Amino acid sequence: MTVTADGGPPLPAAPSGARAAALAIAHLMRRQATQAGLDLSVRELLHTLAGIGETVLIYPSTGGRPRARRMLTEQDPTQQRLFGLFDLATYAPRA
User: In this structure, is residue 11 part of a structural domain?
Assistant: First the structure.
């Protein structure tokens, strides 16, 4: 077992660079949501955003390749507000 220089228990490992950056971004997003009137924890914010899904509908064709249509799943009011707040339409499939 590794101990610290003062003989205490080991300290938890610091987050990796990418993980630390993701955590910082999540906290900034939570702050922006709070300023917009959505009081969510980071965990609630990420869970709510994760609930915004994409569906691909495949339509058969008469000759060539089938057509695919990408669309977003239904969103609850909180998801709709976050979608607008973070301008997620920029990354969403186009109709």
Answer: no
